[in-house]
Design brief:
Blueprint: H1 9-19, H2 23-38, E1 44-50, H3 56-63, E2 67-75, H4 78-88, E3 94-98, E4 115-123, H5 130-134, E5 143-149, E6 162-168, E7 171-176, H6 180-188
């Protein structure tokens, strides 16, 4: 398995802690544009957002009329998570979890999430963390989508993911489209 976009996670945390108060102004329009073209949410969703930042995906889902039954955002940045909590936890359905997307701080096998997303976290030599598959609801899994950045080479999806479009010169959208029966065999095997 490869490495996340930045190899020093402490530096990533410090950077996003620093820009958290202005993240919406800096990147909000860009991220919302990605969601509009990339995210396919059913009317009712239980969402895991890896590298959630200040919770823009949650806001997008709610503003799109999706009934968000559960939203869990995982991020390294405490300040970003603080902003997420302040803005999105009023409804009681948004949870902010401090943690590393490579080592999800979630119990395996809970089978809770119907949709898993990660935007602008992984590089092209990175595979989807196995932990993601272990927290999906196998009976109603809808979509796993990961944007992959390849700043120094042609963007491509990691093994096991299918390209679903370009999000920029150095960024590709990758999706995992696996029939539910195959999910179950892979997870039990």
């Amino acid at each position: 398995m490869g490495r996340p976009l930045a190899t020093d996670k402490y530096d990533v945390m410090v950077y996003y802690d620093t820009i958290a108060p202005s993240y919406r102004e800096l990147y909000g329009a860009e991220q919302m544009s990605k969601y509009l073209t990339s995210v396919r949410l059913p009317r009712r969703s239980r969402i895991l957002d890896l590298g959630c930042g200040v919770g823009l995906l949650y806001e997008y889902a709610v503003s799109s009329g999706v009934e968000v039954e559960l939203y869990v955002g995982v991020d390294l940045s405490f300040e970003s998570l603080r902003a997420l909590r302040a803005r999105c936890s009023r409804e009681g359905l948004a949870e902010a979890v401090a943690g590393d997307v490579d080592r999800l701080p979630l119990r395996d096998g809970v089978g809770v999430f119907t949709n898993v997303y990660s935007f602008t976290v992984y590089t092209c030599d990175y595979g989807i963390p196995e932990a993601v598959l272990r927290v999906l609801d196998l009976g109603s899994a809808e979509e796993v989508a990961v944007s992959v950045l390849c700043p120094d080479e042609e963007p491509r999806c990691p093994e096991g993911l299918t390209e679903a479009g370009r999000l920029g010169r150095a960024e590709v959208l990758c999706k995992l489209e696996v029939p539910r029966a195959v999910w179950q065999v892979q997870l039990r095997g």
